[in-house]
């Protein structure tokens, strides 16, 4: 059937018409092959903003966090029996699905409902973004008042919050790895060892014509404020006000040191690495082709 149509086109249409039809068919094929939704089901402080930027630069309408409304809406829809992404039908990519409740606790819709997301959209693409646990805990702890709010909400010490986060990390990765075992629309993306090409190759296998150059690290904790202070110091230096410039640089340096948490210290980091060694992580976390580096 297809060959007979091609013969008719070649016989009865001019070369110009054939080129136009060919172009239209290519566009149609592209639209049909790239309408899959993309779900980030990993953790915050593990490249969610970078993934959002990458998707948007590659032409995918993506919603990121939405001031917590994305996560709270998903949970509300689940309770009401509606499709999880009701009210977000205009988007194709979804990243950073978390929000804070009235009592100060964090809810992570992507962790709580990833199975239902798959059941509602088994043709969608699912990205489990991870990074070494020590670095992830460190980044969370440096993220504004994130650690303090967690301590207040759970009435726990800093050590207890770190232990809670560590357990949540391992448990979630194990559940996701087990659920998606053998499914080709799933990718574990390790921020510490994978790059834009690795991500792009995955999407290419599913019909997306993405550019790897659009992947870049964004949203590093604490760095924005330090850069702003240093820029102010340079400004005062140019104006000849060396005293204020020096004081601002001292503040920037102090802020840089204060922004590090206990896991930056070599002794504590090594202790945590021993406690959460690869051998202690369930085997489902360590698929042969996508090993999680701790």
Provide structural commentary.
The protein is α/β, with parallel strands linked by helices and 294 residues long. It has helices at residues 2-12, 15-33, 48-57, 69-80, 109-112, 114-120, 133-142, 146-154, 158-179, 196-204, 223-238, 242-258, 266-275, and strands at 38-40, 62-64, 93-95, 98-100, 106-108, 125-130, 186-190. The longest helix has 22 residues, at 158-179.
Shape, principal axes of CA atoms: globular
Task: Give the mean pLDDT.
Answer: 80
Helix and strand composition category:
alpha/beta
Low-confidence stretches: 256-294
Alpha-carbon Rg, integer: 24 Å
Do you know the CATH topology of the largest domain?
Rossmann fold
Oligomer: single chain
SSE topology sketch:
Blueprint (H helix, E strand, L loop, with lengths): L1 H11 L2 H19 L4 E3 L7 H10 L4 E3 L4 H12 L12 E3 L2 E3 L5 E3 H4 L1 H7 L4 E6 L2 H10 L3 H9 L3 H22 L6 E5 L5 H9 L18 H16 L3 H17 L7 H10 L19
Parallel strand pairs: 1-3, 1-6, 2-3, 6-7
Antiparallel strand pairs: 4-5
Helix pairs in contact: 11-12
Give me some keywords for this one:
294 residues, alpha/beta, 2 domains
Quick overview of this protein structure:
By secondary structure, this protein is α/β, with parallel strands linked by helices. It is built from 13 helices and 7 strands.
């Amino acid at each position: 059937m297809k060959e007979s149509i091609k013969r008719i086109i070649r016989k009865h249409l001019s070369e110009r018409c054939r080129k136009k039809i060919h172009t239209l068919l290519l566009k149609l094929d592209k639209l049909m092959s790239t309408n899959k939704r993309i779900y980030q089901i990993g953790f915050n402080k593990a490249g969610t903003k970078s993934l959002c930027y990458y998707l948007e630069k590659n032409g995918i309408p993506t919603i990121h966090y939405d001031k917590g409304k994305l996560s709270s809406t998903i949970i509300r829809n689940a309770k009401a029996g509606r499709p999880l992404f009701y009210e977000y039908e205009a988007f194709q990519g979804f990243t950073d699905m978390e929000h804070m409740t009235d009592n100060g606790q964090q809810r992570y819709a992507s962790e709580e409902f990833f199975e239902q997301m798959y059941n509602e959209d088994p043709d969608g693409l699912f990205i489990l973004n991870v990074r070494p646990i020590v670095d992830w805990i460190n980044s969370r702890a440096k993220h504004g008042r994130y650690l303090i709010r967690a301590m207040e909400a759970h009435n726990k010490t800093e050590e207890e919050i770190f232990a809670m986060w560590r357990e949540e990390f391992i448990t979630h990765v194990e559940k996701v790895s087990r659920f998606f075992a053998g499914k080709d629309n799933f990718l574990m993306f390790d921020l510490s060892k994978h790059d834009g090409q690795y991500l792009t190759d995955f999407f290419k296998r599913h019909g997306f014509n993405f550019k790897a150059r659009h992947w870049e690290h964004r949203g590093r904790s604490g760095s924005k404020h330090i850069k702003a202070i240093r820029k102010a110091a340079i400004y005062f230096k140019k104006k000849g006000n060396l005293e204020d410039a020096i004081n601002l640089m001292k503040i920037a340096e102090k802020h840089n040191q204060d922004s590090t948490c206990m896991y930056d210290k070599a002794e504590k980091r090594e202790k945590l690495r021993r406690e959460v060694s690869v051998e202690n992580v369930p085997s489902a976390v360590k698929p042969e082709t996508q090993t999680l580096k701790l």
